[in-house]
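[audit] Reproducing an earlier prediction to check determinism. Same input, same settings, fresh worker. If the tokens differ from the archived copy the diff job will pick it up downstream; this log only records the rerun itself.
[audit] input (492 residues):
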Amino acid sequence: MMNLVEEAIIYATVLHQGKLRKFGGIPYILHPLEVAQILSTMTEDPEVITAGILHDVVEDTDGTLVEIEKRFGKRVALLVSSESEQKYPEEDPGSTWKRRKEDSLTLLKNSTDIGVKMLWLADKLSNIRSLAGIYSERGEAMWQDLNQSDPAMQCWYYKTVAEQLELSLNKTGAFKELIKHINSIWPGTFDSEKAKFKKYREVSVDGCRRIGHGAKGEVFCYDDEVVIKVYNENNTYHDVEREIALSRRAFILGIPTAISFGIVSVGDRYGAMYELVDADTISECIARAPGQVAVYGSMMAELAHSIHAIQVPPEDGFPDVCDRLRSYVSGGIDHEDEALAERCLELLGTLTPTDHLVHGDFHTNNVFLQKGEPLLIDMDRLATGHPIAEISDLYYFYVVLGEDDPSVVENFMGYSYATAQRFFHAFLQSYLGTDDPEKLREVIEKASLMCYVRMIRRLRNSGGSSAQNRRMIAHYLEKIEYLTDKLDTLLY
């Protein structure tokens, strides 16, 4: 009786019969067989190798996922589906190229099956081997024969794939060969060291006390002198490198920040190690002593002032914080009410560009106290812009996130929703230097507008069609409509 792999070879050979590769005119079946061979260097799993043989059947032949599942099993079909791009038959393949790649990259990013990652690596390595050979003969003329003729877009695609595969597969020869070929076609895309053997220090945070968490990951106390920030699965090595580089730049600019002294592997995730002796997050301090919330609010306000006073030259390349705020509009309210979205963008336009820094993720989980001195982490949203953007982020974290369900804020910050609200008001009074209720109300109204826009995007991303989410979206649309009618600027 034939085994799974042998049956797949016969099945794929029949379906690919008569088809040729774009370059060289060789039988197409040689490509999936090469993919299977590359996979065999990484795994002995017959389902993964079988999926390598079949990975182009659905996309390029009359074969279907239903037939593959019937013949080869559910997991093989799922693996093949991860490599089968959605087609837009009524449109030119060149015009849909980026859309198709973005869709498939999202699937890769969210996959937890190592077989999917191996399959992607093997397919892309096989493809780039072919491209590298043709490129050495034809140079830039090669791109004109592809659906995507812009070499910069091709570089973006291969680079993004490699970044998403790196954590899981960086030790494999296949990954290192992929990096080598990418750098041969687009020199300097990756540090050449990535193509050499490198073992990341592997650590475990099992049993370690979690002392903070945010959108990008969690922070653990590793021992008496070291904390480790463990990044979420969808953060690549490049993301971690970038944040560490921004931390160093922030330190040079005068922002009190912790500097990482090494990237480590924590299971299937990356971690960054920081030396923080006797350090607690301000969230932990507030949780232990909620009666001191005004003290910590003033401390955070002073820290915010020190950041917002820093000016940076344009050549430093920090983004305008309004770019992020505009993305909240395009990713949410623009799908609900285009006219209202346009009004929000008009109000954002009143925030003229500035060369002063804002942190972009400023909350008590991201500030440590080391011997009484605050130290910031999470620098990946560092930008330039008006402080109202920072105040808006704070109002979002401490007030708006808990309006419908206070436990969201309580689980995030580690203290009660009532304490979170008191913290925000203590911060705002100290930051503005006033307890005038009219002035505070004015600033809160302007800050809240973008919070409600942000909430709509959050609700849409988490399943905007559910009855509960639709109710909340309608609620926030009403608030935004009221504020856009009332406000003529976001400046204060």
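[audit] rerun output stored. Observation attached for the diff report: The chain has three domains: 4-195, 209-275, 281-486.
[audit] end
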